[in-house]
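Standup notes, structure subgroup. Blocker cleared on the heme C input:
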Amino acid sequence: MFDPLAELVQLIARWVHLIAGIMWIGNSMLWNWIDRNLETPKSGPRKGLVGEIWMVHSGGFYQMEKLALSPSQLPENLHWFKWQNFTTWASGISLMVLVYYMSAASMMVDPEIAAISANTAIGISAASLPAAWILYDIVWRTKIGKSVTLATLLTLGIVIGASAVYFNFFSGRAAYMHVGILMGTIMTGNVWFVIMPSQRELIAATKEGREQDPAVGYQAKQRSIHNNYFTFPLLFIMLSGHFPSTFGHPKSWVILLVLCSAGAFVRHGMNMRFTNKMWFWPTSFVAFGAASFTLVMMSDKDMLSPSQKRTTPVEFAEVAEIIHNRCTECHSTTPTNAGYKVAPNGIMFDSADLIVRHAPKIEERAVKSKSMPLANQTNMTQAERETLRAWIDQGAKGP
Ligand code: HEC
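Run returned:
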């Protein structure tokens, strides 16, 4: 049933998620930038002064100093930046429940990938997220974390291992989104269980007039670097839902791997550019290479369809019948599917004219990416997809 209340709740959750996400990532990028651009003060060194920076913004000059404080200097009012992160994560988890868990049979399960029940899919999702965080935290909190190379490899192993589970059990779109949710969950765990405790310890140490425990500060720095590298891959995944050519590709995991690695690498280039301007070139090269590779992957028709192509002429009546049988129960002015009272995304195939007009979209969703019919609820066959492909290749003509 189409439920206006559920629709409104989803709309608001998405809106909040986007606003909080912009605030969180925006803040963290600004702080990163500030930290990397601090200058040694022109007025000469002063006790406790780490660096300073001048900025101009919104009608005023701003001077900021990074300080190590003595106990008497600790101000009454200190601003923290933690709720932006929490709100992003909490609204994201709500969206996961609203969009994926509540329609798990169609949004998470793809019978062509794994014939699992909706509850199994939800179980895998709900168990994997805390498990991944716990494993990751153990790696970096214990002695293993002392060897940064080993710990980094293990972290990649955890993310890739969990992704392999998602790709083997979930629909392409749900698998993509879960890799993103997993990264976001690790990032949030880092903020709340490592970075914030370190800030509390810094304040306590300052109050007591002692040095901050260096181990605590070191851990926090490490985790915030991890978050820094997760940012760009995570943001790509959050956008990927609009690009069925990525998550709907038969090799969707390759596209994910390439674009996420490129995103992290570009982030690295941005981190390095203040100390070494040469980083601009390798970064641009990798970004360009990844984009070209993805473009080739997305447009390689034979790769997208290993099955035999149909070469005989296709009559429009044949196409109309396929669309009528497989699509219009949802995509119609009067859908008959129990889940949709209005046509999803406003796409309708009620007339020959509409079918012809939407031919490019039909190709994208039902031929190339097979992300339609949703979870193949209407049992579309590969032969029917090939008929649509042939019709489109022959010019997508009407009756
Ligand atoms: C069970 C219901 C259902 C059936 C059957 C179904 N769709 Fe969809 N369709 C959806 C939903 C829900 C969305 C929106 C979510 C999304 O984009 O994945 C959608 C989105 C689309 C879009 C994206 C529109 C846009 O904004 O770009 C296209 C195109 C599409 N469907 C085509 C088809 C075709 C072609 C068929 C038949 C082969 C089909 N659908 C069958 C439910 C369905």
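Discussed briefly. DSSP finds 15 helices and two strands in the chain.
Next: hand off to the docking folks.
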